[in-house]
Recover the amino acids of this structure.
């Protein structure tokens, strides 16, 4: 389903007839589907530009500027927290171009500094997506986005409809998804919050790496231990947001933060983290586990909870999952809360409310 070429329609005709369209652009894609090289023309193919990506982010572009006497030039792209291009420099760091736009990506204004290498080297602009010159729409992968309206050009693919008929983990995801009424607008872009959220592929909104890095750095300022840091990170994500495990891992690597402790071990193995209101849902490919001195606290592959404070300690409360058990401690009994104390985890059972300590594995 990835776009590898586009053309112009010269006439309306039956499918399969000649002259229906003319090939104008072809794309060579990277492993993640990013546009690496763009080729122009139909009968005669010419190279247009090549983009360099690192970790899914646009780093630079190589092209032949019209004012550079036919000599190819390297450009570096600097982006804001959403991934939108704001400054383009040459290979020596001199500014060639700046760009400004409104919150939804519309009103794009490009300002050249007049260097011989100055040009709009690539069509990647709003949140790093390709903007088609023919329509002005942005290509996100699953669908096109119209910045002039702040709306998608086609409805939500609705993958979440199947979750209600799936397994227990998918039903939890379905419940969390529909709890936000903004998701019922099938054309709305990122819950109408374009200054905070992005959509990497046109399927669902989420925080990006730069935003998660800022959240982690702010949480570090008010955290005295790894358990509290993990809890503060979850609380600081905000409401009705989603973060992929790969984005969180990249952000932790960028900040050189090591999340030790029980909550940290949950986050380290997460495939996705979502917040619906104040409820956090962590989903992973396998059962989440918390190592302890006498065994393993085994949680499901999709668990939901609230993050709070009990006696000054970070606590996971209102835990909703299926089949929770601690080897060497108790059989499969639902757990009401986990209080992350400095020396261990105070576990409160949902049945009868008894408590006992599980000490971290040394």
């Amino acid at each position: 389903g990835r776009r590898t070429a586009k053309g112009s329609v010269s006439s309306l005709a039956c499918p399969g007839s000649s002259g229906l369209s003319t090939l104008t652009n072809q794309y060579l894609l990277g492993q993640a589907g990013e546009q690496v090289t763009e080729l122009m023309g139909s009968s005669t193919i010419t190279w247009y530009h090549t983009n360099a990506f690192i970790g899914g982010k646009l780093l630079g572009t190589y092209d032949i500027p019209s004012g550079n006497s036919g000599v190819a030039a390297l450009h570096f792209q600097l982006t804001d927290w959403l991934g939108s291009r704001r400054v383009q420099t040459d290979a020596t760091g001199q500014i060639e171009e700046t760009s400004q736009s409104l919150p939804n990506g519309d009103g794009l204004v490009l300002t050249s500094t007049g260097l011989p290498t100055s040009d709009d080297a690539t069509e990647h602009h709003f949140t790093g997506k390709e903007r088609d010159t023919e329509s002005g729409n942005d290509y996100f992968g699953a669908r096109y986005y119209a910045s002039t309206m702040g709306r998608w050009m086609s409805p939500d693919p609705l993958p979440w409809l199947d979750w209600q008929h799936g397994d227990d983990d998918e039903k939890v995801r379905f419940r969390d998804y529909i709890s936000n009424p903004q998701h019922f607008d099938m054309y709305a872009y990122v819950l109408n919050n374009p200054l905070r959220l992005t959509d990497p592929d046109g399927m669902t909104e989420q925080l990006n790496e730069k935003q998660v890095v800022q959240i982690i750095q702010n949480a570090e300022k008010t955290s005295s231990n790894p358990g509290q840091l993990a809890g503060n990170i979850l609380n600081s994500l905000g409401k009705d947001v989603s973060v992929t495990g790969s984005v969180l891992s990249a952000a932790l690597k960028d900040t050189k933060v090591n999340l030790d402790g029980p909550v940290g071990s949950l986050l380290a193995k997460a495939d996705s983290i979502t917040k619906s209101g104040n409820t956090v849902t962590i989903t992973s490919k396998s059962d989440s586990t918390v190592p302890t001195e006498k065994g393993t606290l085994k949680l499901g592959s999709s668990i939901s909870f609230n993050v709070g404070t009990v006696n000054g300690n970070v606590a996971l409360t209102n835990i909703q999952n299926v089949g929770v058990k601690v080897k060497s401690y108790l059989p499969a009994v639902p757990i009401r809360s986990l209080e992350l104390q400095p020396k261990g985890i105070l576990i409160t059972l949902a049945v009868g409310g008894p408590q006992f300590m599980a000490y971290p594995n040394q």
Notes: The longest helix spans residues 209-221. Residues 180 and 276 are 7 Å apart (CA to CA). The chain has five helices and 24 strands.
